[in-house]
């Protein structure tokens, strides 16, 4: 038997429980845009196959230029990575040089992976019942903080001005904006710290972005860090050369300008999320939390791992249990927002489970 996964989207593990092939599962556990990948990305992928016989440009000049134009920032402030996960490893290295790192919990399990790797001292602060908890933490010594906006798994978002007060208190502030694109152009303007970071030339702030969720390419692996050029040059010198493959780099150059795909995603997400949230709230045993992202965290009076097993075995539907978030345990599950038809399949399956009916 395979180990219970710490991340969503582990279809091999789930297919074994459901006794089916991985492609037969309906996956609500990984928060991936169901409209993608965009056609523009598939076309770029096909075009880039002929370049596989060459090494990628080690400086990713073209990709950094496209990303710089997208954010209206200097490309020297951008470093592409093999998913946000790779860049998190280097951000964690920098955090580990400080006396401690503050982490709001529940926290994405990869934060612990990356911080533990470099023996960072971690100080956790619960935000489950108090979204303002970042105000109350006063660590001793030189401290860093690792934040996630919008936050996985709660779906909470912060306006970027709320981070201003952290600028004087922390030696290093890392903001993981892996799900920021889902908040739309308005959300980006209010919530993302990228524009502030570059206009203020802050040397001690890093923003991490993922391109795998919004563009539905988690298998391709692509993300980027925005930070001071000196820091990014240091990371580039430390890490493996060519950590972004040429397919991912060339797809990234094209799809970031696919405005029609982005608009279609925003047009789909807002009503689909509201509808799913309201329908889940109809179950007496379930309480979904409002979310700014493309997933919902749901409190359940019925054990989440048991629900997960039941949905897998009867319906081949995979939801995300929250056992990898120790503060949540069996009382919560997380579901991605999918298409209206997929969401309805989930709701129909949940309506067959007696323990959810109150
Ligand atoms: C909060 C958060 N940050 C970063 C990542 C990693 O994203 P990527 O696929 O770009 O490595 C994930 C993936 O689940 C995530 O949930």
Describe the overall structure.
The protein has 358 residues and is an alpha/beta fold. It has 2 domains: 11-30 and 260-356, Aspartate Aminotransferase, domain 1 (Alpha-Beta Complex); 40-258, Type I PLP-dependent aspartate aminotransferase-like (Major domain) (Aspartate Aminotransferase, domain 2). It is 37% helix and 17% strand. The chain contains 12 helices and 13 strands. A 7-stranded mixed β-sheet has the order 2-8-7-6-5-3-4, sandwiched between helices. It has a 4-stranded antiparallel β-sheet with strand order 9-10-13-12, with helices on one face. A two-stranded parallel ribbon has the order 1-11. A hairpin with a 6-residue loop joins strand 9 and strand 10. Helix 1 (11-18) packs across helix 11, helix 2 (39-48) runs antiparallel to helix 9 (246-255) and helix 10 runs parallel beside helix 12. It is globular. The two termini are 34 Å apart. Residues 83-85, 108, 148, 152, 176, 178, 210, 212, 218, 223 line the site of pyridoxal-5'-phosphate.
């Amino acid at each position: 038997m395979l180990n219970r996964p710490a991340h969503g989207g582990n279809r091999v593990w789930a297919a074994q429980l459901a006794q089916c092939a991985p492609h037969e599962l309906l996956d609500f556990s990984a928060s991936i845009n169901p409209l993608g990948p965009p056609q523009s990305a598939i076309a770029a992928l096909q075009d880039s196959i002929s370049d596989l016989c060459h090494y990628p440009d080690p400086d990713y000049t073209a990709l950094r230029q496209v990303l710089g134009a997208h954010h209206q920032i200097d490309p020297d402030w951008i470093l592409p990575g093999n998913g946000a996960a790779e860049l998190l490893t280097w951000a964690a290295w920098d955090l580990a040089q400080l006396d401690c790192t503050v982490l709001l919990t529940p926290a994405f399990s990869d934060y612990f992976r990356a911080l533990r790797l470099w023996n960072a001292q971690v100080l956790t602060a619960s935000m489950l019942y108090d979204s303002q908890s970042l105000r109350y933490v006063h660590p001793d010594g030189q401290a860093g903080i690792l934040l996630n906006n919008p936050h996985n798994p709660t779906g909470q978002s912060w306006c970027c001005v709320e981070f201003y007060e952290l600028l004087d208190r922390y030696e290093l502030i890392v903001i993981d904006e892996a799900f920021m694109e889902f908040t739309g152009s308005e959300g980006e303007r209010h919530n993302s710290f990228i524009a502030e970071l570059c206009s203020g030339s802050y040397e001690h702030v890093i923003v991490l972005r993922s391109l795998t969720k919004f563009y539905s390419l988690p298998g391709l692996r692509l993300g980027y860090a925005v930070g001071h050029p000196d820091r990014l040059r240091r990371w580039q010198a430390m890490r493996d050369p060519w950590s972004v493959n040429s397919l991912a780099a060339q797809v990234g150059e094209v799809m970031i300008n696919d405005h029609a795909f982005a608009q279609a995603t925003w047009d789909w997400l807002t009503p689909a999320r509201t509808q799913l949230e309201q329908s889940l709230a109809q179950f007496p045993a379930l309480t979904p939390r409002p979310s700014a992202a493309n997933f919902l965290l749901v409190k359940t009076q019925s054990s989440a791992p048991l629900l997960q097993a039941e949905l897998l075995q009867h319906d081949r539907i995979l939801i995300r249990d929250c056992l990898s978030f120790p503060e949540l345990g069996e009382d919560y599950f997380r579901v991605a927002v999918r298409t209206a038809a997929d969401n309805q399949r989930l709701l129909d399956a949940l309506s067959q489970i007696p323990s959810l009916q109150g």
